[in-house]
UniProtKB/TrEMBL annotation:
InterPro entries: MoaB/Mog-like_dom_sf (IPR036425), MoaB/Mog_dom (IPR001453), MoCF_biosynth_CS (IPR008284), MoeA-like (IPR038987), MoeA_C_domain_IV (IPR005111), MoeA_C_domain_IV_sf (IPR036688), MoeA_linker/N (IPR005110), MoeA_linker/N_sf (IPR036135)
Species of origin: Mucilaginibacter straminoryzae
SMART domains linked to this entry: MoCF_biosynth
Protein name (Swiss-Prot/TrEMBL): Molybdopterin molybdenumtransferase
Any one of the GO BP annotations: Mo-molybdopterin cofactor biosynthetic process
Pfam families, per the entry: MoCF_biosynth, MoeA_C, MoeA_N
Family: Belongs to the MoeA family.
Catalysed reactions listed for this entry: adenylyl-molybdopterin + molybdate = Mo-molybdopterin + AMP + H(+)
Amino acid sequence: MISVEEARQLIAATTVDFGIEEVGLLQCLGRVLAQVVLADRDYPPFNRVTMDGVAILSSRFGSGQCVFPVEGIQAAGSAQLTLHDANNCLEVMTGAMLPKGCDAVIPYEQIEIKDGIAKLLTEEVKPLQNVHLQGTDSKAGQKLLSPGAIITPAVVGLLAASGLNKVQVKRLPKVAVCATGDELVEIDETPLPHQIRQSNSYMLLSTLQAENISASRHHLTDDPAAMKDQLREIIASNNVVLLSGAVSKGKFDYLPQVLNGLGFETIFHGIAQRPGKPFLFGKIKNGPVVFGFPGNPVSTFVCYHLYFKPWLHQSIGKEHQPLKAFLGRPVTFKPNLAYHALVQLSYPEGRVIASPVDTSTSGDMVMLAQAQGILTLPAGRDEFGTDEAFELTLV
Ligand SMILES: Nc1nc2c(c(=O)[nH]1)N[C@H]1C(S)=C(S)[C@@H](COP(=O)(O)OP(=O)(O)OC[C@H]3O[C@@H](n4cnc5c(N)ncnc54)[C@H](O)[C@@H]3O)O[C@H]1N2
Ligand code: MOO
Ligand SMILES: [Mg+2]
């Protein structure tokens, strides 16, 4: 058995670059940008009025004039008007081009308009007030976004403003999710007393969905020959195989043996941790990376978050932000294993507090559904107090 740290290093050493693909603007949320985005024009592209009101030449106000006949209206979306007489003003709307001949905008709240004449009620008018000057935010040709940027909704907005309806992003792997075991039935079946529904596959498919990956779903039976045939096909058409179950010491835990007959190179089998001790990790020669999660639902879930997710993020260039949290109550854990505690989170006075939820075993799906995070308490200690921060993984 290896330590959590060793497992992480070995997994990080197997990351794969899946290349680049082009997707539609509304398909790119959460993806990693793989291109440079340049400003196709200045931002803002013209001197933009920022308040509804009137535009004047500010020096006129400075020389004592405070009434300005209204020459016309400059609306947003209309071509730029010109103020013909510098003693006059133009009404202007937020988002309009500042008219030629004007350099300041006074909001409606600071004027009175009567019989076509605007009277300024303000003490001061500064040149360029309430004007968002052309090119302030970016000049045409300047870099707006670099490869590696995570596409958030605000980034989608910027891409749209730049006229991009297709975007180059890092390609995601093709993933197969495989449940194993003769006790598993489909979720729309009524299980016999000795059967259970295969919930792990759906848990994995949905957490992959959050990564924009729509994986294929498979059920491998506890028959080594049939399992081998099924896996051969799955291996041939995927970049990653996520398996749950059949990696422990049971008489029907055929997975390691079957994989070995398919060109599997074991990188490790077993981590000094709870849950997830029998985790099997390796790679098919010239084929996919294989994560063999232990079948208990909590083990599958924890190993996905602690090992697969960082591997995926490293492969596609998503930066990992390490988080820490304080225990909500002291924990005693005697085995010499790292303990990944399921926790609920609270934030009193800005402190992140992780309170362990009590699971009966790593088969406890009911409490698993209450978890908001995983707090990793390191191996080599028995007692964990509330005054020390530990590594937190959000789920
Ligand atoms: N003699 C030993 N026995 C066990 C050890 C050990 O070290 N020595 N380790 C235990 C630990 S820890 C775990 S975790 C499990 C892992 O077992 P497997 O990976 O072989 O998984 P299975 O035996 O196939 O199933 C375990 C458990 O999980 C349920 N399961 C499996 N797949 C699904 C699914 N898709 N959806 C819902 N539930 C699933 C399965 O029915 C079993 O109850 O081994 C311990 N034993
Ligand atoms: O680690 Mo097993 O994963 O304890 O149930
Ligand atoms: Mg087993």
